[in-house]
Amino acid sequence: MDRFRTMESFVRVARSGSFTVAASQLGLSRALVSRHVGDLEARLGVRLINRSTRSLSLTDEGDAYLRFCERVFRDIEASEQTMLRTRAEPAGALKILAPKSFGTMHLSDAVVAFAKAQPRLRVSLMLENTPYRGVYDFAERGLDLVLCFSNMRGASVTEEEIGVLDWVVCAAPDYLARAGRPQTPADLANHACLLHLNVTPNDSIWRFDGPKGASSVKVRSAFFSNAAIALAKAAAAGLGVTMVPRYVVADALASGELVPVLPRYRVKARPLIAIHPQAPVTPRKVQVFIDFLRDWMAGQDFQTAQGRAAE
Fold first, then answer.
1. Which sign, positive or negative, has the C-alpha torsion 174, 178, 179, 183?
2. What is the mean pLDDT of residues 90-100?
3. Interstrand relation of 167-171 and 241-245 (parallel, antiparallel or unpaired)
4. What is the per-residue pLDDT across 219-234, written as a single tens digit (0 to 9) for each?
């Protein structure tokens, strides 16, 4: 016999003082409600209700057990209400892992704004440069969400595009004065290039869209880094040509410290991707953050390092 069903039958009988009334309230037969109470007494080994032809009364044990049952049902109701509120208003901990450069320059502003808008959430933002196809044990690290610029292509994760960021090929004017200015992507094979590690499956292959369609070139590296900010500094120091997100070098391009290379050729924009463990239903706290971040990115101008809101 279902323990909670017998407890519910007992509570209804105790409150109403009648097996008949309790049965009507529960939509059961009087005989079944009586059986529930009898089974409950047999399991507990005590009499809970004194029965007579005219009235019912609780024993001392029955009175104590009634208080226990009511406390259990209150706790269940409170827990269910908490779960329902959590679905509507996310609560608990949200742990986010994001790329260091983008996180430092822009994403931290979004996460702070999100944390302010969601005071019931305890938000953690960790910044490190996520490798291409990196394998993250979400359970072991306690991660809820990973943001990166490359796909993980894992069957156990869900990927959602948040927004798209422009990338640019650029170099310092003094480097181009020494090494010459490339006219086509193929010319880059003869230049010192500064490579971003772990962004694409093959970081040494640079791809372009130009006047005659798509083209690619295998470049040789003079400097490697997994941080776009470091590549921008290396380019500004005249070490070579680099391909980085535009937001990293926007101010340097505006000041002339760096200049675009191959302006007639466009570098394919790359999406910022949110990755989280695959589940039948995305946790509310994760979905709320993804929706917030999409809206936030849509309102930003990443042509400047400060990322002013678009007017």
1. positive
2. 87
3. antiparallel
4. 988 899 888 899 999 9
